[in-house]
Design a protein that fits this description.
Distance between the termini: 51 Å
Structural class: alpha/beta
Helix content: 25-40%
Number of helices: 14
Strand order of the largest sheet: 3-2-1-4-5-6-7-8
Radius of gyration: 24 Å
Order of helices and strands: EHEHHEEHEHEEHEHHHHHEHEHEHEE
CATH class of the largest domain: Alpha Beta
CATH topology of the largest domain: Rossmann fold
Largest sheet: 8 strands, mixed
Number of strands: 13
Shape: globular
Number of domains: 2
Protein backbone atom coordinates (compact mmCIF):
# COMPACT_ATOMS: atom_id res chain seq x y z
CA UNK A 1 0.00 0.00 0.00
CA UNK A 2 1.29 3.44 -0.90
CA UNK A 3 -0.03 5.81 1.78
CA UNK A 4 0.28 8.71 -0.62
CA UNK A 5 -2.63 7.20 -2.57
CA UNK A 6 -4.93 6.99 0.42
CA UNK A 7 -7.96 9.25 0.63
CA UNK A 8 -7.24 12.26 2.91
CA UNK A 9 -9.64 12.91 5.75
CA UNK A 10 -11.77 15.98 5.11
CA UNK A 11 -12.18 18.41 8.05
CA UNK A 12 -15.69 18.55 9.45
CA UNK A 13 -17.25 22.00 9.19
CA UNK A 14 -20.03 21.41 11.71
CA UNK A 15 -17.73 19.55 14.15
CA UNK A 16 -20.51 17.04 14.93
CA UNK A 17 -18.75 13.68 15.19
CA UNK A 18 -22.08 11.85 15.27
CA UNK A 19 -23.12 13.05 11.82
CA UNK A 20 -20.56 10.85 10.04
CA UNK A 21 -20.67 7.94 12.49
CA UNK A 22 -22.03 5.46 9.93
CA UNK A 23 -19.64 6.40 7.11
CA UNK A 24 -17.50 3.41 6.10
CA UNK A 25 -13.75 3.36 6.61
CA UNK A 26 -11.42 2.56 3.73
CA UNK A 27 -8.09 2.68 5.58
CA UNK A 28 -6.52 2.59 9.04
CA UNK A 29 -3.10 3.07 10.65
CA UNK A 30 -2.13 0.63 13.39
CA UNK A 31 0.78 1.65 15.60
CA UNK A 32 2.76 -1.20 17.12
CA UNK A 33 3.31 -4.32 15.02
CA UNK A 34 3.60 -6.80 17.87
CA UNK A 35 1.45 -9.61 19.23
CA UNK A 36 -1.64 -7.35 19.27
CA UNK A 37 -1.11 -4.95 16.40
CA UNK A 38 -0.04 -7.37 13.68
CA UNK A 39 -2.97 -9.82 13.98
CA UNK A 40 -5.36 -6.87 14.09
CA UNK A 41 -3.73 -5.34 11.02
CA UNK A 42 -4.14 -8.54 9.04
CA UNK A 43 -7.77 -8.84 10.10
CA UNK A 44 -8.55 -5.34 8.81
CA UNK A 45 -6.61 -6.08 5.62
CA UNK A 46 -8.59 -9.27 5.03
CA UNK A 47 -11.75 -7.20 5.48
CA UNK A 48 -10.66 -5.02 2.57
CA UNK A 49 -9.27 -1.93 4.36
CA UNK A 50 -5.90 -0.48 3.46
CA UNK A 51 -3.70 -0.94 6.54
CA UNK A 52 -0.71 1.22 7.38
CA UNK A 53 1.37 -0.66 9.97
CA UNK A 54 3.60 1.70 11.96
CA UNK A 55 6.47 0.59 14.21
CA UNK A 56 9.65 2.21 15.54
CA UNK A 57 11.67 -0.98 14.89
CA UNK A 58 13.35 -0.74 11.47
CA UNK A 59 14.11 -4.46 11.45
CA UNK A 60 10.47 -5.39 12.07
CA UNK A 61 9.29 -3.08 9.31
CA UNK A 62 11.81 -4.55 6.87
CA UNK A 63 10.65 -8.09 7.63
CA UNK A 64 6.99 -7.13 7.33
CA UNK A 65 7.41 -5.48 3.95
CA UNK A 66 9.18 -8.62 2.73
CA UNK A 67 6.21 -10.68 3.89
CA UNK A 68 8.19 -12.32 6.69
CA UNK A 69 6.31 -12.90 9.93
CA UNK A 70 8.35 -12.85 13.14
CA UNK A 71 5.47 -14.19 15.26
CA UNK A 72 5.14 -17.97 15.19
CA UNK A 73 1.35 -18.27 15.11
CA UNK A 74 1.06 -15.77 12.24
CA UNK A 75 1.91 -17.40 8.93
CA UNK A 76 4.12 -15.48 6.53
CA UNK A 77 1.76 -16.57 3.75
CA UNK A 78 -1.07 -14.58 5.38
CA UNK A 79 1.14 -11.50 5.47
CA UNK A 80 2.35 -11.95 1.91
CA UNK A 81 -1.22 -12.28 0.66
CA UNK A 82 -2.18 -8.89 2.08
CA UNK A 83 0.97 -7.22 0.76
CA UNK A 84 0.36 -8.57 -2.74
CA UNK A 85 -3.26 -7.40 -2.63
CA UNK A 86 -2.01 -3.90 -1.69
CA UNK A 87 -3.94 -4.00 1.60
CA UNK A 88 -0.91 -3.79 3.91
CA UNK A 89 2.35 -1.90 4.13
CA UNK A 90 4.61 -1.21 7.10
CA UNK A 91 6.52 1.98 7.86
CA UNK A 92 8.44 3.77 10.59
CA UNK A 93 7.04 7.13 9.46
CA UNK A 94 4.51 8.47 11.98
CA UNK A 95 3.58 11.28 9.58
CA UNK A 96 1.87 8.67 7.42
CA UNK A 97 -1.03 8.49 9.90
CA UNK A 98 -2.21 11.86 8.62
CA UNK A 99 -3.34 10.17 5.40
CA UNK A 100 -5.58 7.58 7.06
CA UNK A 101 -9.08 7.86 8.46
CA UNK A 102 -8.40 6.03 11.74
CA UNK A 103 -5.44 5.31 14.01
CA UNK A 104 -5.26 2.41 16.47
CA UNK A 105 -2.54 2.41 19.15
CA UNK A 106 -1.26 -1.05 20.18
CA UNK A 107 1.91 -0.40 22.19
CA UNK A 108 3.20 -1.99 25.43
CA UNK A 109 2.08 -0.86 28.89
CA UNK A 110 4.57 -2.52 31.26
CA UNK A 111 5.25 -1.91 34.95
CA UNK A 112 8.24 -0.05 36.30
CA UNK A 113 10.57 -1.56 38.90
CA UNK A 114 8.17 -0.46 41.67
CA UNK A 115 5.22 -2.29 40.05
CA UNK A 116 3.65 1.00 39.02
CA UNK A 117 2.10 1.70 35.58
CA UNK A 118 4.56 2.75 32.91
CA UNK A 119 2.74 4.70 30.20
CA UNK A 120 5.95 5.74 28.44
CA UNK A 121 5.08 4.01 25.16
CA UNK A 122 1.47 5.24 25.09
CA UNK A 123 2.35 8.85 25.82
CA UNK A 124 5.33 8.85 23.44
CA UNK A 125 3.07 7.53 20.71
CA UNK A 126 0.55 10.25 21.47
CA UNK A 127 3.23 12.91 21.08
CA UNK A 128 4.46 11.33 17.85
CA UNK A 129 1.06 11.26 16.15
CA UNK A 130 -0.47 14.47 17.53
CA UNK A 131 1.07 16.84 14.93
CA UNK A 132 -0.34 14.67 12.14
CA UNK A 133 -3.92 14.21 13.38
CA UNK A 134 -6.54 15.49 10.94
CA UNK A 135 -10.03 16.77 11.68
CA UNK A 136 -12.55 13.95 11.37
CA UNK A 137 -10.09 11.20 12.27
CA UNK A 138 -10.73 8.45 14.79
CA UNK A 139 -8.03 7.61 17.36
CA UNK A 140 -8.39 4.40 19.39
CA UNK A 141 -6.18 3.17 22.23
CA UNK A 142 -6.01 -0.62 22.67
CA UNK A 143 -3.14 -0.85 25.16
CA UNK A 144 -4.30 -2.21 28.52
CA UNK A 145 -4.25 0.45 31.21
CA UNK A 146 -6.07 1.91 34.21
CA UNK A 147 -9.45 3.69 33.96
CA UNK A 148 -8.97 7.31 32.96
CA UNK A 149 -5.87 6.89 30.81
CA UNK A 150 -7.54 7.66 27.49
CA UNK A 151 -9.27 10.82 28.72
CA UNK A 152 -6.88 12.10 31.36
CA UNK A 153 -3.47 11.13 29.97
CA UNK A 154 -3.69 10.60 26.20
CA UNK A 155 -6.37 13.16 25.30
CA UNK A 156 -4.46 16.28 26.52
CA UNK A 157 -1.38 15.23 24.56
CA UNK A 158 -3.37 14.71 21.37
CA UNK A 159 -5.24 17.99 21.73
CA UNK A 160 -2.16 20.06 22.57
CA UNK A 161 -0.11 18.61 19.74
CA UNK A 162 -2.83 18.82 17.11
CA UNK A 163 -4.66 21.99 18.10
CA UNK A 164 -7.90 20.03 17.72
CA UNK A 165 -10.52 19.11 20.31
CA UNK A 166 -11.35 15.46 20.97
CA UNK A 167 -15.04 14.70 20.69
CA UNK A 168 -15.56 17.74 18.48
CA UNK A 169 -12.84 17.80 15.81
CA UNK A 170 -11.70 14.19 16.05
CA UNK A 171 -13.00 11.03 17.72
CA UNK A 172 -11.25 9.32 20.61
CA UNK A 173 -12.06 5.88 22.05
CA UNK A 174 -10.67 2.92 23.95
CA UNK A 175 -11.10 -0.72 22.91
CA UNK A 176 -9.16 -3.37 24.85
CA UNK A 177 -7.28 -6.06 22.98
CA UNK A 178 -8.40 -9.65 23.52
CA UNK A 179 -5.61 -11.68 21.96
CA UNK A 180 -5.09 -15.32 22.94
CA UNK A 181 -1.81 -16.38 21.27
CA UNK A 182 -1.39 -20.08 20.66
CA UNK A 183 -5.10 -20.88 20.82
CA UNK A 184 -6.18 -22.14 17.38
CA UNK A 185 -9.82 -21.55 18.32
CA UNK A 186 -9.14 -17.86 18.98
CA UNK A 187 -9.67 -15.77 15.86
CA UNK A 188 -9.46 -11.99 15.95
CA UNK A 189 -12.55 -11.49 13.84
CA UNK A 190 -14.74 -13.64 16.07
CA UNK A 191 -13.83 -12.17 19.46
CA UNK A 192 -16.40 -9.51 20.51
CA UNK A 193 -14.88 -6.02 20.68
CA UNK A 194 -15.70 -3.84 23.69
CA UNK A 195 -15.66 -0.16 22.69
CA UNK A 196 -16.04 3.03 24.71
CA UNK A 197 -15.59 6.57 23.40
CA UNK A 198 -15.32 9.94 25.13
CA UNK A 199 -18.69 10.80 23.55
CA UNK A 200 -21.52 8.73 22.16
CA UNK A 201 -20.53 9.84 18.67
CA UNK A 202 -16.96 8.64 19.25
CA UNK A 203 -18.27 5.27 20.40
CA UNK A 204 -20.46 4.93 17.34
CA UNK A 205 -17.60 5.90 15.03
CA UNK A 206 -15.30 3.32 16.61
CA UNK A 207 -18.02 0.66 16.34
CA UNK A 208 -18.26 1.43 12.63
CA UNK A 209 -14.51 0.94 12.22
CA UNK A 210 -14.30 -2.36 14.11
CA UNK A 211 -17.60 -3.55 12.68
CA UNK A 212 -15.92 -3.68 9.26
CA UNK A 213 -13.60 -6.46 10.45
CA UNK A 214 -15.00 -7.88 13.71
CA UNK A 215 -18.20 -9.92 13.87
CA UNK A 216 -19.57 -8.29 17.04
CA UNK A 217 -18.97 -4.94 18.71
CA UNK A 218 -19.99 -4.25 22.32
CA UNK A 219 -20.46 -0.51 22.90
CA UNK A 220 -20.21 0.73 26.48
CA UNK A 221 -20.92 4.12 28.02
CA UNK A 222 -17.37 5.48 28.32
CA UNK A 223 -13.65 4.92 27.84
CA UNK A 224 -13.38 4.26 31.58
CA UNK A 225 -15.86 1.39 31.42
CA UNK A 226 -13.97 -0.17 28.50
CA UNK A 227 -10.66 0.22 30.34
CA UNK A 228 -12.13 -1.30 33.50
CA UNK A 229 -13.59 -4.22 31.52
CA UNK A 230 -10.16 -5.38 30.39
CA UNK A 231 -8.81 -5.17 33.93
CA UNK A 232 -11.72 -7.18 35.31
CA UNK A 233 -11.16 -9.93 32.75
CA UNK A 234 -7.52 -10.40 33.73
CA UNK A 235 -7.92 -9.78 37.46
CA UNK A 236 -10.54 -12.54 37.47
CA UNK A 237 -7.94 -14.90 36.02
CA UNK A 238 -5.13 -13.70 38.29
CA UNK A 239 -7.16 -14.22 41.48
CA UNK A 240 -8.33 -17.69 40.46
CA UNK A 241 -4.86 -18.78 39.36
CA UNK A 242 -3.54 -17.58 42.72
CA UNK A 243 -6.19 -19.69 44.43
CA UNK A 244 -5.16 -22.92 42.69
CA UNK A 245 -1.46 -22.06 43.19
CA UNK A 246 -2.12 -21.74 46.92
CA UNK A 247 -4.14 -24.95 46.96
CA UNK A 248 -1.34 -26.71 45.10
CA UNK A 249 1.04 -26.00 47.97
CA UNK A 250 -1.54 -26.97 50.59
CA UNK A 251 -2.55 -30.20 48.86
CA UNK A 252 1.07 -31.12 48.19
CA UNK A 253 1.66 -31.03 51.96
CA UNK A 254 -1.34 -33.34 52.35
CA UNK A 255 -0.12 -35.76 49.70
CA UNK A 256 -2.97 -34.82 47.33
CA UNK A 257 -2.45 -34.24 43.60
CA UNK A 258 -3.99 -30.85 42.73
CA UNK A 259 -4.28 -31.85 39.07
CA UNK A 260 -6.42 -34.86 39.91
CA UNK A 261 -8.57 -32.67 42.15
CA UNK A 262 -9.14 -30.14 39.33
CA UNK A 263 -9.99 -32.88 36.84
CA UNK A 264 -12.59 -34.26 39.24
CA UNK A 265 -14.03 -30.84 40.11
CA UNK A 266 -14.48 -29.76 36.48
CA UNK A 267 -16.91 -32.62 35.87
CA UNK A 268 -19.46 -30.48 37.74
CA UNK A 269 -21.62 -28.97 34.98
CA UNK A 270 -22.35 -25.74 36.87
CA UNK A 271 -20.77 -23.36 39.35
CA UNK A 272 -17.15 -24.32 38.64
CA UNK A 273 -14.57 -23.13 36.12
CA UNK A 274 -11.17 -24.87 36.01
CA UNK A 275 -7.98 -22.87 36.51
CA UNK A 276 -4.54 -24.46 36.59
CA UNK A 277 -1.42 -23.88 38.70
CA UNK A 278 2.01 -23.18 37.31
CA UNK A 279 5.52 -21.90 38.08
CA UNK A 280 4.38 -18.27 38.05
CA UNK A 281 2.46 -15.91 35.83
CA UNK A 282 3.55 -14.94 32.35
CA UNK A 283 2.33 -12.98 29.36
CA UNK A 284 1.73 -9.27 29.03
CA UNK A 285 -1.69 -9.23 30.72
CA UNK A 286 -2.20 -11.27 33.88
CA UNK A 287 1.08 -10.47 35.71
CA UNK A 288 0.69 -6.74 34.98
CA UNK A 289 -2.91 -5.60 34.63
CA UNK A 290 -4.00 -6.11 38.28
CA UNK A 291 -1.31 -3.69 39.43
CA UNK A 292 -2.73 -1.00 37.14
CA UNK A 293 -6.02 -1.07 39.02
CA UNK A 294 -4.39 -1.37 42.46
CA UNK A 295 -2.27 1.69 41.73
CA UNK A 296 -5.20 3.75 40.46
CA UNK A 297 -7.48 2.65 43.31
CA UNK A 298 -5.17 4.26 45.87
CA UNK A 299 -5.91 7.62 44.27
CA UNK A 300 -9.49 7.12 45.48
CA UNK A 301 -8.40 5.87 48.91
CA UNK A 302 -9.50 2.35 47.98
CA UNK A 303 -7.43 -0.76 48.66
CA UNK A 304 -7.58 -3.89 46.52
CA UNK A 305 -6.85 -6.61 49.07
CA UNK A 306 -7.83 -9.60 46.92
CA UNK A 307 -5.79 -8.31 43.99
CA UNK A 308 -2.74 -7.64 46.15
CA UNK A 309 -2.92 -11.03 47.84
CA UNK A 310 -3.28 -12.79 44.49
CA UNK A 311 -0.24 -10.91 43.21
CA UNK A 312 1.81 -11.93 46.24
CA UNK A 313 0.78 -15.58 45.87
CA UNK A 314 1.56 -15.74 42.16
CA UNK A 315 4.91 -13.96 42.43
CA UNK A 316 6.01 -16.41 45.14
CA UNK A 317 5.53 -19.45 42.91
CA UNK A 318 9.02 -19.42 41.33
CA UNK A 319 10.49 -19.62 44.84
CA UNK A 320 8.23 -22.56 45.64
CA UNK A 321 9.36 -24.28 42.44
CA UNK A 322 12.98 -23.74 43.44
CA UNK A 323 12.27 -25.35 46.81
CA UNK A 324 10.82 -28.39 45.05
CA UNK A 325 13.87 -28.55 42.78
CA UNK A 326 16.16 -28.52 45.81
CA UNK A 327 14.10 -31.32 47.40
CA UNK A 328 14.33 -33.33 44.18
CA UNK A 329 18.13 -32.94 44.01
CA UNK A 330 18.43 -33.74 47.71
CA UNK A 331 16.67 -37.05 47.00
CA UNK A 332 19.72 -37.85 44.84
CA UNK A 333 22.09 -36.55 47.53
CA UNK A 334 23.03 -33.64 45.31
CA UNK A 335 23.29 -29.93 45.97
CA UNK A 336 21.79 -27.41 43.60
CA UNK A 337 25.19 -25.69 43.54
CA UNK A 338 27.20 -27.32 40.79
CA UNK A 339 24.22 -29.22 39.34
CA UNK A 340 23.41 -29.12 35.64
CA UNK A 341 19.80 -27.97 35.20
CA UNK A 342 17.67 -27.84 32.06
CA UNK A 343 14.67 -25.50 31.95
CA UNK A 344 12.18 -26.95 29.48
CA UNK A 345 10.18 -24.11 27.96
CA UNK A 346 10.90 -20.38 27.92
CA UNK A 347 7.56 -19.26 26.47
CA UNK A 348 4.99 -18.15 29.03
CA UNK A 349 2.36 -20.56 27.64
CA UNK A 350 2.31 -23.69 25.44
CA UNK A 351 2.90 -23.66 21.69
CA UNK A 352 3.90 -20.00 21.28
CA UNK A 353 7.19 -18.12 20.95
CA UNK A 354 6.05 -15.34 23.30
CA UNK A 355 8.37 -14.78 26.29
CA UNK A 356 6.75 -11.68 27.75
CA UNK A 357 6.94 -11.81 31.57
CA UNK A 358 7.78 -15.52 31.39
CA UNK A 359 8.57 -17.01 34.83
CA UNK A 360 11.15 -19.26 33.15
CA UNK A 361 13.68 -16.43 33.02
CA UNK A 362 13.22 -15.69 36.72
CA UNK A 363 13.69 -19.40 37.44
CA UNK A 364 16.92 -19.37 35.44
CA UNK A 365 18.05 -16.43 37.57
CA UNK A 366 17.31 -18.40 40.76
CA UNK A 367 19.23 -21.44 39.55
CA UNK A 368 22.25 -19.37 38.62
CA UNK A 369 22.12 -17.48 41.92
CA UNK A 370 22.29 -20.85 43.68
CA UNK A 371 25.33 -21.93 41.68
CA UNK A 372 23.68 -24.23 39.15
CA UNK A 373 24.75 -24.54 35.53
CA UNK A 374 21.62 -23.69 33.50
CA UNK A 375 20.55 -24.48 29.95
CA UNK A 376 17.17 -24.39 28.24
CA UNK A 377 15.19 -26.19 25.57
CA UNK A 378 12.29 -24.62 23.71
CA UNK A 379 11.21 -25.83 20.24
CA UNK A 380 9.61 -22.44 19.55
CA UNK A 381 12.46 -20.23 20.80
CA UNK A 382 15.79 -21.42 19.36
CA UNK A 383 17.55 -18.20 20.44
CA UNK A 384 16.57 -15.86 23.29
CA UNK A 385 15.61 -12.44 21.92
CA UNK A 386 16.34 -9.23 23.80
CA UNK A 387 13.97 -8.67 26.72
CA UNK A 388 13.47 -5.61 28.91
CA UNK A 389 13.91 -7.41 32.24
CA UNK A 390 16.56 -10.01 31.33
CA UNK A 391 18.92 -8.64 28.67
CA UNK A 392 21.68 -10.90 30.00
CA UNK A 393 20.08 -13.90 28.27
CA UNK A 394 20.02 -12.30 24.83
CA UNK A 395 21.50 -14.70 22.29
CA UNK A 396 21.35 -17.82 24.48
CA UNK A 397 20.63 -20.87 22.31
CA UNK A 398 18.36 -23.80 23.00
CA UNK A 399 20.05 -27.18 23.36
CA UNK A 400 19.26 -29.89 20.82
CA UNK A 401 16.73 -32.53 21.84
CA UNK A 402 18.92 -35.66 21.91
CA UNK A 403 19.30 -38.55 24.29
CA UNK A 404 22.94 -37.69 25.01
CA UNK A 405 22.04 -34.10 25.88
CA UNK A 406 19.10 -35.02 28.12
CA UNK A 407 21.09 -37.64 30.02
CA UNK A 408 23.71 -35.00 30.82
CA UNK A 409 21.45 -33.02 33.18
CA UNK A 410 21.01 -33.63 36.88
CA UNK A 411 17.50 -32.15 36.76
CA UNK A 412 14.97 -31.13 34.11
CA UNK A 413 12.39 -28.53 35.11
CA UNK A 414 9.25 -28.45 32.96
CA UNK A 415 8.21 -24.79 32.98
CA UNK A 416 6.13 -24.81 29.78
CA UNK A 417 4.19 -27.79 28.44
CA UNK A 418 4.70 -27.44 24.68
CA UNK A 419 2.69 -30.07 22.84
CA UNK A 420 5.48 -30.85 20.38
CA UNK A 421 7.76 -32.20 23.12
CA UNK A 422 7.96 -36.00 23.41
CA UNK A 423 7.48 -36.40 27.16
CA UNK A 424 7.93 -40.16 27.05
CA UNK A 425 11.37 -39.62 25.57
CA UNK A 426 12.02 -37.19 28.41
CA UNK A 427 10.97 -39.88 30.89
CA UNK A 428 13.25 -42.38 29.18
CA UNK A 429 16.30 -40.12 29.09
CA UNK A 430 16.15 -37.76 32.09
CA UNK A 431 17.24 -38.89 35.55
CA UNK A 432 15.15 -36.39 37.54
CA UNK A 433 12.16 -34.28 36.50
CA UNK A 434 10.26 -31.50 38.25
CA UNK A 435 6.94 -30.93 36.50
CA UNK A 436 5.06 -27.67 37.08
CA UNK A 437 2.50 -28.24 34.30
CA UNK A 438 1.34 -31.86 34.70
CA UNK A 439 3.01 -32.50 31.34
CA UNK A 440 4.22 -35.97 32.37
CA UNK A 441 0.70 -37.22 33.01
CA UNK A 442 0.27 -40.45 31.03
CA UNK A 443 4.01 -41.08 30.62
CA UNK A 444 5.74 -44.11 32.09
CA UNK A 445 7.81 -42.85 35.01
CA UNK A 446 10.39 -44.64 37.13
CA UNK A 447 9.97 -44.56 40.90
CA UNK A 448 11.47 -41.42 42.40
CA UNK A 449 12.06 -39.84 39.01
CA UNK A 450 9.22 -37.30 39.04
CA UNK A 451 8.49 -34.45 41.43
CA UNK A 452 5.38 -32.35 40.84
CA UNK A 453 5.46 -28.67 41.63
Amino acid sequence: MNVSNLKPVAPSENHDVQVESEAAFSNVSIIGMGYVGLPLALQFARAGLHVNGVDIDDEKVTHLNKGESYIKHIASASLQEQIESKHFEATTDFASIGQTEAVIICVPTPLNKNHEPDLTYVLATGRAIAPHIRAGQLIVLESTTYPGTTEDELRPILEEGSGLVAGRDFCLAFSPEREDPGNPQSQVGRIPKVIGGITQGCTQRACTLYGAAIEKTVPVSSCRVAEATKLLENIFRSVNIALVNELKVVYEAMGIDIWEVIDAAKTKPFGFMPFYPGPGLGGHCIPIDPYYLSWKAREYNQFTRFISLAGETNTQMPRYVMQRCMEALNSRRKSIAGSKVLVLGLAYKPNVDDMRESPSLELMDHFRDHGAEVSFYDPHIPVVPKTREHPEYTGWKSIEWTEDNLRGFDLVLIATNHHSVDYQELANWADLIVDTRNAMHGSSIKEGQLFKS
